[in-house]
Amino acid sequence: MRFCISEKDLDEVLQSQIVYSNVAKGVLAKSKDLKAAFGMDDQTKICLEILEKGELQVAGKERESQLSNQFRDIATIVMQKTINPETQRPYTISMIERLMHEIHFAVDPHSNSKKQALDVIRELQKHFPIKRSPMRLRLTLPQDKFDSLAEKLSEWKAVILSKDESGSQFSVVCEIDPGIFRDCDALVRNLQGRSEILAISVHGEGDFHADDVSSSQETSTSTEVVQQLTEKMQKPTFVSEPTSDLKHCTTCDAVVGDAKQYREHFKSDWHKHNLKRKTRQLPPLSAEECAADEELTDSKKDLSEYSF
């Protein structure tokens, strides 16, 4: 596997810019060995050369671990972007993973997790009661233009939460399907107004529970499948007692598991996000908070993902 470098900051690519002769044992490469192999001992330049010309060697177990972590990342994105239309609440991450297995989803390690998550949502909507969670917006425009906007909001089945009049300006807070955002934003701009994203994904309070499914009408195959999955989740599971071998990550301020899980944690987006916060002297976030923080940042940079 060849590397293609688009990131200019090495700190965003590597955990360390130190070259090892045996990383497992922590043995640093000697200067004479570096000169013999690369013709120089400048470790930063050597790291760049390795990234540009080297090949990534991944063991079977490590590849399996990477796919498992990416599967979890995709499921997390799906959970954040969707709700159960009957309860207006998000499904649990365990339920989302079970549904992904039901549609025989396979991770593509060469594709972006967010893109795959959107593909998963489209496929899940064909089989299960699931829909995109709405966006919450504040739309501000001249008062004499509001009638034109109100007509479109009604057509889009937007939920209007509040209205506010201030001088010649009229402001409305509403919730719309994310797929409509680009059209809505374009319309507001044409009406000489502006749109502001208040929330990327709006969920009802609380998470999905088994009762939410069992109380629904059993008239569709998709609902029955969800009920079956829920019953499986209710079966007792045996969890071993925690031991003193559990590792604590000081960067994330969390217990992350045994030695193997501890090593895998350092490769996770959660840990990398908190590393960035640590350099800015900000407190660590939980895994869910990190995912939400990254989602908000990404959405401000590129809103094209909402047009499906």
TrEMBL record:
Keyword Hydrolase: no
SUPFAM superfamilies xref list: beta-beta-alpha zinc fingers, FYSH domain, Hypothetical protein AF0491, middle domain
A Pfam family reported for this protein in Swiss-Prot or TrEMBL: SBDS_C
Biased composition regions of type Basic and acidic residues, renumbered to the chain: 297-308
Residue ranges occupied by any Ribosome maturation protein SDO1/SBDS N-terminal domain in the UniProt entry: 7-63
Domain Ribosome maturation protein SDO1/SBDS C-terminal: 135-197
Organism: Ambrosia artemisiifolia
Protein's name according to its UniProt entry: Ribosome maturation protein SBDS
Residue ranges annotated for the Ribosome maturation protein SDO1/SBDS central domain, each copy included: 72-132
Subcellular location(s) of the protein: Cytoplasm; Nucleus
